[in-house]
Amino acid sequence: MDQTFDIDLIKYNLIPSLMTNIIVGVHLNKKIAVINDLDFLNEKFLDFFDYIYHESFDHDIHFITENVYKKNKNQFRNSLIFKGHQIIRDKEKIIDNKKTKIENSIVEQFFSEYDSKSGIIIFKNELTKLFKLSQDLIEINSNLKENEDFTSKKAIMHINEKYHTKISYPYVHRLLEITEHYFNVKLKKASDSGDLLGLI
């Protein structure tokens, strides 16, 4: 998929906290509406998200003006609604700063990268990595024996052996949420305490 937008224009007009909230919503399979009255930017924003998610997550993101939102509120009643720093609607309270550290780190890296072209490649790759590693967790789960539980330790060991990549417990936790909310797969998890003991 070709890049049809100016990366610096996206960085200048889409603040990091909003970008983090959007990608968290995508990863948890939520419909999203972003209110932005600079209408000429809305198509460019959508092109940006189409591009970064081209090989991974499907998304349902709408960039709309305040006027369009007010006229069509009913259409977005089940959506996460964002406007700049503001969270206008989040019925399920899924936007929790304590739980968005993984996406926040990916976004911060994108904004801090001096070379915009390298930055967007890294950004896209990190999002694709979340998608593919979540699929790996589903594979691990499907291969468990009847009396086995899924644990974070098994996930970390599997990913380390397969990709020679080390991931943290918080990273595994986000992958677990993606498998359950985006892929709608319930893993055979042990209790939280048992899962933590598995990391020792």
List the main descriptive attributes of the protein structure presented here.
200 residues; alpha/beta; 2 domains; four-stranded mixed β-sheet; 9 helices; 4 strands; globular; disordered C terminus
List the helices and strands and how they pair.
Layout: H1 7-13, H2 16-27, E1 32-35, H3 39-52, E2 61-64, H4 66-71, E3 80-83, E4 86-89, H5 101-112, H6 116-142, H7 152-163, H8 169-181, H9 192-197
Parallel strand pairs: 1-2, 1-3
Antiparallel strand pairs: 3-4
Helix pairs in contact: 2-5, 5-6, 6-7, 6-8
Walk me through this protein's architecture.
- The chain is α/β, with parallel strands linked by helices and 200 residues long.
- The chain has 2 domains: 7-99, no CATH class; 128-197.
- Helix content is 55%, strand content 8%.
- It has 9 helices and 4 strands.
- It has a 4-stranded mixed beta sheet.
- A hairpin with a 2-residue loop joins strand 3 (80-83) and strand 4.
- The longest helix is centred in the middle third of the chain and has 27 residues, at 116-142.
- The radius of gyration is 18 Å and the shape is globular.
- The N and C termini lie far apart (43 Å).
- Residues 190-194 and 196-200 have low confidence and may be disordered.
Largest sheet: 4 strands, mixed
Return the structural class: alpha/beta
Helical run tally: 9
Q: Order of strands in the sheet with the most strands?
A: 2-1-3-4
In which range does the helix fraction lie? 40-55%
How many whole angstroms does the radius of gyration measure? 18 Å
